[in-house]
Design goal:
CATH superfamily: L-amino peptidase D-ALA esterase/amidase
Structural class: alpha+beta
CATH architecture: 4-Layer Sandwich
Distance between the termini: 34 Å
Helix content: 10-25%
Number of helices: 6
Strand content: 15-25%
Order of helices and strands: EEEEHHEEEHEEHEHEH
CATH topology: L-amino peptidase D-ALA esterase/amidase
Shape: globular
Number of strands: 11
């Protein structure tokens, strides 16, 4: 297995990603869409999720495909980013036909970034506009780091961000991941090494070495939690999308999403806490047919997600008013 040409989720044929953000607000939205509707499911392992229309992604529900997926900052306010994407899709004539009506199907998930040093005193909820702009910006290439849904993301003691990675399997199938990493947990060991370092490929983390020491069994201490407890809030979240061009049905997409949570647990310690809303969407464009090795695809999805989290943290950039430093700048 090797990374795809872009080392982005958009190495999966047909997929496009767009970002929109406000660096004064320290928040934003990321949208994944495609040239045509795609199959999707999801799995949630965090204790504090925030979602829109995820019930319809269950394998037993009648909706077969969706038009876009949204990852957004803004907590409950950010769910309105989906409405902006719906408006953009409708203007493009995209959606599920119901008689004379066309209804875009746009599930989404949000992370909590309301207490990160940004100016949140907005007169009008900005997230519908973020969603519309991110959809309009969707392209094969896109930025990662402190952009889109990762703009104001924080980890336990460092800035988080938006990350992506891909793998091309030996049989020609491509798998990719997109993540907004905003966990309550740590992305680095007590010695400052990325937990994801063992999975680095082609210097995508800057050739940082893995931690050679052992015994990392300590009580959980988080600067982020201390800041948030002072505000009375306790929501975080790592929200992600894993995708493949292999032809998966909804049940197989759900299985890929379940397996991909291993990628979160390998890159973030602790993961899936009661204060996180950890959620992974699983996507199939189906461009390569249905003769698939699901085990290899699930394995690749977890690897891509760990690497995407590492890239999110490494690519984060400092900004005025930040409450926590960036990786490598402590």
């Amino acid at each position: 297995m090797i990374p795809g040409p872009l080392n982005l989720i958009t190495d999966v044929s047909g997929l496009r990603v767009g970002n929109a953000e406000d660096h004064t607000l320290k928040s934003g939205t990321t949208v994944l869409t495609a040239d045509a509707p795609f199959t999707a499911s999801h799995h949630t392992m965090g204790g504090a999720p925030g979602t829109r229309e995820t019930d319809l992604l269950a394998p037993d529900k009648s909706v077969a495909q969706v038009d876009a997926l949204v990852l957004s900052g803004g907590s409950a306010f950010g769910l309105d980013a989906c409405a902006g994407v719906v408006d953009g899709l409708r203007a493009d004539g995209r959606g599920f036909a119901v008689g004379p009506a066309t209804v875009p199907i746009v599930p989404g998930a949000i992370l909590f970034d309301l207490v990160n040093g940004g100016d949140k005193d907005w007169p009008v909820n900005p997230y519908p506009a973020f969603g519309r702009a991110a959809y309009a910006n969707a392209a094969k290439t896109f930025d990662i780091g402190s952009v889109g849904a990762g703009t104001g993301a924080l980890t336990a003691n460092l800035k988080g961000g938006l990350g992506s990675a891909s793998l091309m399997l030996d049989n020609g199938v491509t798998v990719g991941a997109l993540v907004a990493a905003n966990p309550v947990g740590h992305v680095v060991t007590p010695n400052g090494h990325l937990w994801a370092a063992p999975f680095e490929m082609r210097g995508e983390f800057g050739n940082v070495a893995a931690d050679a020491t052992t015994g990392h069994v300590h009580p959980f201490v988080s600067e982020k939690v201390a800041m948030m407890l002072g505000s009375g809030e306790g929501a975080n979240t790592t929200i992600a999308i894993v995708a493949t061009d292999a032809g998966l049905d909804k049940a197989q997409c759900q299985r890929m999403a379940i397996a991909a949570h291993d990628g979160i647990a390998r890159a973030i310690v602790p993961a899936h806490t009661p204060m996180d809303g950890d959620l992974v969407f699983g996507v199939s464009t189906g461009d390569r047919g249905s003769d698939v090795d699901l085990t290899q695809i699930c394995h690749a999805a977890a690897l891509c997600l760990s690497r995407a989290i590492g890239r999110a943290v490494v690519e984060a950039t400092p900004a005025d008013g930040d409450l926590l430093p960036c990786f490598g700048r402590t």
